[in-house]
Amino acid sequence: MRDKILGFLRKRQDYISGDYISHRLGISRQALWKHVQDLRDSGYEIVAVPHLGYKLTAVPDRLFISEVSNRLNTRFVGRNIYYFDSVISTMDIALQLGLKNCPEGTVIIAETQTKGRGRIGRQWFSPRYKGIYFSCILRPKILPYATPVLTLLTAVSICEAIKNMLSLDVQIKWPNDILLHNKKLGGILTELNAEMDEVRFIVIGVGLNVNNDKRSLVEGATSLKEHIQENINRVELLQEIMQRLEGNYILFQEKGSHAIIEKWRHYNITLGRRVRVLHNKEYIEGEASDIDSDGSLLLRKDSGLVHKITSGDITHCR
């Protein structure tokens, strides 16, 4: 009901009659007033004037379903959204929903995570109402070995969204780090449910530092606010990321991984550098020479031997 009331309020820049809203929704004026109070408690600023009605003057900085869905220009990503003020991890919820055959493109959003997950068992720090933390469920018709390219696809989508909205030149460190001025801005975690020759579904998790103050950031991290010097509209940025994610996912399905990898090359800062990778509990050092068609890193050792690295903790040596 609150979303329907917001729909009426959004359509009018001036006041709208309470009688009109009540009549159209088939509720009493008293019930309408209670819903308006509930919206106010959620942070919406709604002015009520006798004989004029209600007027929406400001919306809260929250990633509510009604806000994210409003004017979202996607076909399937974000058309089914779950919102939580606090969860242990959006990835956990997404994996549970994936097993229940939820629609492709389902998105789980949280304002904070008490145990947000990063790669290799790391924790992602998720301060409340500051960043963007979400997981998206996809069901691509690909073999399990090809799933690493979806991490690259997501990284490209984030970079494109930030570039388009904020004109910031963000970069990608293979396989999953989003950097800004050589500091970590965001990370991507990909988990899948699959058989030997079939992917049932993939969950892509994103953590992005948006309006974090410098004092709330861990060492080596940064936020968009640090560089813009003002708060960013998190709803608009999340919408832009989801739209780019869907567009690149469709491109991947139609054109294959080559189209995504070519985009990835534009933002990457790993290829051509000497790197050290922790892979299968062993350190390998050499030049990051190229990306394979499945998103794996091709690392050329000093001996000339090329290793294919599907995942690992990477350090840029120089």
Question: Which helices and strands, and how do they pair?
Answer:
Layout (H helix, E strand, L loop, with lengths): L1 H10 L6 H8 L3 H13 L3 E5 L3 E6 L6 H5 L11 E7 L2 H10 L7 E7 L2 E2 L5 E2 L7 E7 L9 H19 L4 E3 L3 E4 L2 E13 L2 E11 L15 H5 L5 H22 L1 H11 L6 E6 L2 E10 L5 E4 L5 E4 L3 E4 L2
Parallel strand pairs: 3-4
Antiparallel strand pairs: 1-2, 4-7, 5-6, 7-11, 8-9, 9-10, 10-11, 12-13, 12-16, 13-14, 14-15
Could you walk me through the main structural features you see in this protein, from its secondary elements to its overall organization?
The protein has 318 residues and is an alpha+beta fold. Helix content is 32%, strand content 30%. The mean pLDDT is 93. α6 crosses α8 and α6 crosses α9. The chain has 3 domains: 57 residues, Arc Repressor Mutant, subunit A, CATH 1.10.10; 203 residues, BirA Bifunctional Protein, domain 2, CATH 3.30.930.10; 43 residues, SH3 type barrels, CATH 2.30.30.100. It has 9 helices and 16 strands. It has a 7-stranded mixed beta sheet with strand order 3-4-7-11-10-9-8, sandwiched between helices. A hairpin with a 2-residue loop joins β9 and β10.
Q: Which fold name fills CATH's third level, the topology of the largest domain?
A: BirA Bifunctional Protein, domain 2
Report the portion of residues in β strands: 25-35%
Query: From the 3D coordinates, which CATH architecture of the largest domain would you assign?
Result: 2-Layer Sandwich
Structural class: alpha+beta
Q: Helicity level, as a percent range?
A: 25-40%
**For the terminal residues, how far apart are their CA atoms?**
57 Å
What is the CATH homology-level superfamily of the largest domain? Bira Bifunctional Protein, Domain 2
Radius of gyration (CA) equals 22 Å
- In which order are the strands of the major sheet placed? 3-4-7-11-10-9-8
- Give the rounded overall mean pLDDT: 93
Q: Tell me the number of structural domains.
A: 3
